[in-house]
Amino acid sequence: MAGYLEVICGGMYSGKSSEMIRRINRAQYARKKVQLFKPTLDGRYHPTQVVAHDRRNHEAVAVAGVNDIMGLLDPDTDVVAIDEIQFFDADEAVALVKRLMSLDKKVIVAGLDMDFTGKPFGAVPHLLAIADEIDKLKAICIRCGEDAYISQRLVNGQPASVNDPQIQVGGTESYEARCRRCWQLSP
Question: Of 14, 96, 168, 187, which has fewest CB within 10 angstroms of its CB?
């Protein structure tokens, strides 16, 4: 298998999308053709842009599933970037990334490595295992100021239950960055 895989992971507010945008801009400066994709599920800030919490943004193509990407891929694209990879079907996402790498593409993915319950999330754990380069970013715990590793989901200001659905797209109204000591789950 050829190609190259970079995985940017961490909890919410750790700067994953900002780092992805920085890498895309760097590739474009190097005259590489880049295509950025995002799930249609994530329309928090804009339907056709990846917008980071710090408001950095980049034009993207929103797709319902990762299998749509191959049909939208320009043959001369050098770098394929996929934001919020954890929201796509895990098996399909891994298969797509491997296929892109076999086509000598550089692939950059960003996503949550853990869900709000602390469990591995979607395709990210498998992609970490096959990555050429990994950056696990940390946020700052909203409670104590230490390094935050996990996204604390809140429901009416209280920790979410372990029985709540795994996927719930949201921002500061629903999630906080927390360290392991400050993170909680309701039974």
Answer: 187
pTM of the predicted structure, to 2 decimals: 0.89
Two tokens, residue 91: 């098996």
pLDDT tens by residue, 118-147? 999 999 999 999 999 999 999 999 999 999
- What is the 3 state secondary structure string of 60-104? CEEECCCHHHHHHCCCCCCEEEECCHHHCCHHHHHHHHHHHHHCC
Residues noted as catalytic:
84
Query: Rounded to an integer, what distance in angstroms lies between the CA atom of residue 79 and that of residue 77?
Result: 6
The CA-atom distances, in angstroms, between 137 and each of 41, 91, 103, 144, 146 are 23, 24, 28, 18, 13
Number of domains in the chain: 1
Determine, yes or no, domain membership for 174: no
Contact 83, 110 (CB under 8 A): yes
**Residue 167 located in a structural domain:** no
Is residue 94 in a domain?
yes
d(CA 105, CA 146) in angstroms, rounded, equals 37
Helices and strands, counts by H and E, the chain: 4, 13
> What percent of the chain is modeled with pLDDT above 90?
70
Domain that holds residue 120: 4-139
